[in-house]
Amino acid sequence: MTAGKEISGPADPRFFTRAGPFGAEQLAEAAGAELVPAKAGDGVVRDYAGIAPLQVAGPADVSFLDNRRYAPLLEQTRAGLVIVAPAFVDKVPAGCAALVTASPYLAWSRVARLFHPLAPARPGIHALACVDPSASVAPEAEIEPFAVIGPNAEIGPGCVVGSHAVIGQGVRLGRDCRIGNHVSISHALLGERVIILPGARIGQDGFGFAVGPAGFETIPQLGKVILENDVEIGANSTIDRGSVSDTVIGAGSRLDNLVQIGHNVQMGRCCIVVSQAGISGSTVLEDYVTVAAQAGLIGHIRIGTKARIGAQCGVMSDIEGGADVIGSPAMPFREFFRNVAVLRKLAKKASGTAQGETGKV
Amino acid sequence: MTAGKEISGPADPRFFTRAGPFGAEQLAEAAGAELVPAKAGDGVVRDYAGIAPLQVAGPADVSFLDNRRYAPLLEQTRAGLVIVAPAFVDKVPAGCAALVTASPYLAWSRVARLFHPLAPARPGIHALACVDPSASVAPEAEIEPFAVIGPNAEIGPGCVVGSHAVIGQGVRLGRDCRIGNHVSISHALLGERVIILPGARIGQDGFGFAVGPAGFETIPQLGKVILENDVEIGANSTIDRGSVSDTVIGAGSRLDNLVQIGHNVQMGRCCIVVSQAGISGSTVLEDYVTVAAQAGLIGHIRIGTKARIGAQCGVMSDIEGGADVIGSPAMPFREFFRNVAVLRKLAKKASGTAQGETGKV
Amino acid sequence: MTAGKEISGPADPRFFTRAGPFGAEQLAEAAGAELVPAKAGDGVVRDYAGIAPLQVAGPADVSFLDNRRYAPLLEQTRAGLVIVAPAFVDKVPAGCAALVTASPYLAWSRVARLFHPLAPARPGIHALACVDPSASVAPEAEIEPFAVIGPNAEIGPGCVVGSHAVIGQGVRLGRDCRIGNHVSISHALLGERVIILPGARIGQDGFGFAVGPAGFETIPQLGKVILENDVEIGANSTIDRGSVSDTVIGAGSRLDNLVQIGHNVQMGRCCIVVSQAGISGSTVLEDYVTVAAQAGLIGHIRIGTKARIGAQCGVMSDIEGGADVIGSPAMPFREFFRNVAVLRKLAKKASGTAQGETGKV
C-alpha cells in the first residue's frame, strides 16, 4: 500500500539546488516570525541546513505545521526548528526551537525559498532556437532549444522561454516572465513576472461562430489576451483571445491546471481559479474572486469582489460580492447543504416506496 | 477593477492585417443585409475603415448589436454603421447608417472577415522542419519550423502545419487544413478545411484494458480517427482513435477547448461540443447535437438529432432527438428546474429541523 | 447520418503492422481459451489472417463478443472464429469456431496483440534531438526528432522518447518506457514500462501559494513525482510534483486523458482514473480505487481499497474501502438514485405550485 510508503525528504539534489546553511535569526527575519528558543537541550542557536516535513526532519532541518490535522506529528518531530502559529507553540517538543507567526504558511514559503532559490535565467539564445530577425530579445533573457520567437515579438530581460515554446508574432513579454515548455502564446501582451506552466495555450481563436446557410461560419476573433503582472497560468490551461474586446487576467491572479477561459473574459486582481474550472465568454470576475475546482460559469455574467464559487458549482447568473455559493445551479453554501440534508431525510422516509427504483449506470 | 478598464478597439495591427476601406454598399452585399441610410447627418455613404465594439467605434467604424443586453450601448454609439436585427432599427442613432438583417451575428462575421481576412498559407517547408522523404507535401502547403511529417503522410494544398506539430505515419490531410502549434495527429484521416487549435491530441490510444492475472492488460487500439470536412477542434482537446471501428467527427462539427472524445465515438454533422465536455467510448451523436460545457456522456449510448445537452449534465442513457436535458442524471430541462424549486421550498419549510446539519467542505 | 456509415475493418495497413496468419490452436493458447470447433462447415481448422468486429468479419477473421448489448450481431456474423464467454456459445453461428473463456475481453486483447504487435524501439538518437552530454541514454533506446534530454537524465533500454518530448534534468526512466510526443517531464522518477500519451505534463509546480502583504507568494514545490512500474498516463493529463513529500502513482495504475493530479497525491496499485477527473492535493487513494469520469476529490482525504467513485461525483470526505459512491456531495450509489426518484415524485406532486418558476440558462 502506498500509504505505508516511506516518505523521503524534499529537495532531492537531482532536481533542486540548495543554499545555506542559515542561522535561526536569519531565518526568523526572512520568515517575519518571532524566534522562540528550545525549552530543553543545549539551547545553542545552531545553523540549519535544509527543510523537511515533520515526520522526517532531523535536528538540522526546519519544518512547519499549517494544517491542524497534522498536529500530532508536531509533538513527535525531531526537527530542530519549526514554524508554527501561536496556538501550537505549546506542542513544540522541548528540544526544538520555534518560529512563531500568525502566517506560518507564508513564513514557510519564504524559508523554503531561501534554502532553494529559483534558478536565475541563463542569458542567451540556444543554437537550436528559431528566433525571427525582427524579434527583440533582451540580452538578459534565456531562450531554450527549439523555442520559436515570431516576427516583432519582444522578450523582456530576465525572461526564460522554455523548450518548444512558441511566442507568436507581435507578442510582448515584460521582464522576468517564465514560459514553460510547449507553451504557445499568440495575440497577447504579458506584464512582468508572469509564469506560464507547460502546455498552456494563450491567445488562440475563441469558440465563436454563426449559423450560416451551409453550416457554421467562424466569427473572426480580433481581440487579444492581456496577462497583467504576476499572473500565473497552470499546465495545459487554455485562454482564448477576445473576439472584439480583450480577454484580461488581472494582476496577481492564479489559474491552476486544465482551466478554460473563454473569449472576452475579464478577471480582476488576485483571483484564484482552481483546476478544471471553466469560465465562459464575456463573463466578468471582480477582484479576489475564488473559483474552486471543476466549477463552471456561463457567459455574460458578473461575479462580485471576494465571491467564492465552490467546487463543481454551476453558475448561471450574477453573484454578489462576498457571496459563498455551491451547487448546480449555484446557491448559498448553507442552502445547498440544507437541501442535501432535507432530501436525504425525505428519501429515507419514502424509502419503502422507492424500493426497486434505484437506477443503474 | 478590471471592469472599469478602458476597452481598446479590436484588431491590434501587431496581430492582425487589415483590408479595406469598404463602401457601405459593398459591406451590405458581403453581409447579405439591407442598407438603411443614416436619418440625420450629411447622408453621404462613406467608406468604412474597420470594425469596433459599440462603445469605442467612431464614424469610420462598423459595429454590431447581437445580444439584447447590450442594447443601451447602441443608442449611444458613435459608429458610422451598425449591423442590427430589424427589432433594433429604431434604436440606431440618427447619424448612423444600419445594415439590417435577421442574422446580425452572421452578417458581422462576414464583415469582420472582409476587413481582416485569414492570412493565406505561405507555401514551402521551413528549413527546420523534419519531413520524411516518403511523405507527400503539396507544394502549396506551408510547413512551419520544427514540424514533423511522418512516413507516407499526405499534406494537401493550402494546408498550414504549425510549429512543432507532429503529423504521424500515414496521416492524410485534405486541402486547406490548419494544424495549430504543438498538435499531434496519428492514425487519422482529415477531410478539407479542418482546423485544429494548438495542443489538441488526435488519434492516440484509447483507454482500453482488460483485467489480467498480473494487472491490467492493454487492449490494442486498432481503429483510426476520421475528421470530416470543416471540422474544428479546440485547444488541448483529446480525440482517441477507435479500438476496432473508427472514431468519427462529422462534417462541420465544432469542438471547443479541453474536450474529451473517447474511442469509437461517432458524431454526426454540425454537432457542437463546448469546453471541458466529455463523451465516453462508442457513444453515438446524431446530427446537430449540442453538448454544453462540462457535460459528460457515458459510453455506448445514442443521442438523437438536434438534442441539446445542458452544461454539467450527466447523461447515462439514450436521449431522444430534439430533447433538451440538463442535470446529473440528465432530465428534461423543465423538470430539472422544477425539482430545484420544489426542493428549495421543502428545505425552507424544514429549515428549523435541519439546523445544525449544514455540511462543511 | 454518421450512424449509418459503413464500418470499416480495423488495423488499416497505413497505420498498423500485421503478423500472422495464426492457426486456431495457436490463438487458443495465446488467448488462454478453449477451442470449440465449428458445428457445421468443412470442420477444417484454418489459419486466421486478422481480427475484425462482428459486423464486418469474414471467414479468415477472428472476432469477439464482450458487451451483451451487441449479442444480436453474434448470431449473424460471418467471422471464422469468435471469442465468447460460455453463456454465448449457443449463439455462435454454425460455421464459426469459438474460443470460449470466462474473460473474453482479456483473450481478445491478447489475440489482437498477436496479430498487431507493438513496434519495438528503433535504437538510436535522431540527429535533430537535443541530448545533454551529461545525460545517460541506453544504446537500445530510441530518441525521436526534436526531443530534449536534460542534464543527468537517465533513459533506460527499450525506451522510446517521442518527438518534442522534454525530459528534464535528473529525470530517470526505467526500461521500456514509452513517452509520447510533446510530453514534458521534470522532477520525476519513472519505473519500467511506463506509458505516457502525448501532451501529458508530469512534475511541474503544484498550485501552492500563501497570502502575503502584496499578493500571493508561491510556496516552493520541492517534492517530485514517482510513477511506478506499468503506470499509464493519458493525453494532456497533468500531474504536479509534490510540495514537500512526493506525488506517487502506484504500480499498474491507469489514468485517462485530461486528468488532474494535485501535489502530494498518493495513489496505490492498479487504480483507475477516468477522463477529466481531478484529485486535489495530498489526497490518498489506496489500491484498486476507481474514479470515474469528471469526478472531483478535495484534498487531504483518504479513499479506501477498491472504492468506486462514480462519474461527476464530488467527494468531500474520506470514503471507506469497497464503497460505491456517486453524487455531489458523494453518497452511496443506492441512496443517490433513491433521492433522485423521491425528488421527482415530490416535484410531480407539487408541479401545479411550481409552475412558472422554471429557470432559464
From TrEMBL, chains A, B, C:
Task: Identify the species of origin.
Answer: Acetobacter suratthaniensis
UniProt keywords, alphabetically = Acyltransferase, Lipid A biosynthesis, Lipid biosynthesis, Lipid metabolism, Repeat, Transferase
Any Pfam family matching the protein: LpxD
Q: How does it assemble?
A: Homotrimer.
Task: Give yes or no: UniProt keyword Disulfide bond.
Answer: no
The gene for this chain is lpxD
- Stored InterPro entries: GMPPB_C, LpxD, Trimer_LpxA-like_sf, UDP_GlcNAc_AcTrfase_non-rep
Role description? Catalyzes the N-acylation of UDP-3-O-acylglucosamine using 3-hydroxyacyl-ACP as the acyl donor. Is involved in the biosynthesis of lipid A, a phosphorylated glycolipid that anchors the lipopolysaccharide to the outer membrane of the cell.
The family note in this entry says: Belongs to the transferase hexapeptide repeat family. LpxD subfamily.
The reaction(s) annotated as catalysed by this protein in its Swiss-Prot or TrEMBL entry are: a UDP-3-O-[(3R)-3-hydroxyacyl]-alpha-D-glucosamine + a (3R)-hydroxyacyl-[ACP] = a UDP-2-N,3-O-bis[(3R)-3-hydroxyacyl]-alpha-D-glucosamine + holo-[ACP] + H(+)
Q: Which residues form the signal peptide?
A: none
Instruction: Name the chain's protein.
Output: UDP-3-O-acylglucosamine N-acyltransferase
- Tell me the route in metabolism or biology where this protein functions: Bacterial outer membrane biogenesis; LPS lipid A biosynthesis
What EC designation does it have? 2.3.1.191
What positions does the domain Mannose-1-phosphate guanyltransferase C-terminal occupy? 134-241
Give start-end ranges for the coiled-coil region(s). none
Please name the catalytic residues of this protein.
Answer: 263
Which HAMAP family does the record match to this protein?
Answer: LpxD
What are the GO MF terms of this UniProt record? UDP-3-O-[(3R)-3-hydroxyacyl]-glucosamine N-acyltransferase activity
Record-annotated UDP-3-O-[3-hydroxymyristoyl] glucosamine N-acyltransferase non-repeat region domain positions? 50-114
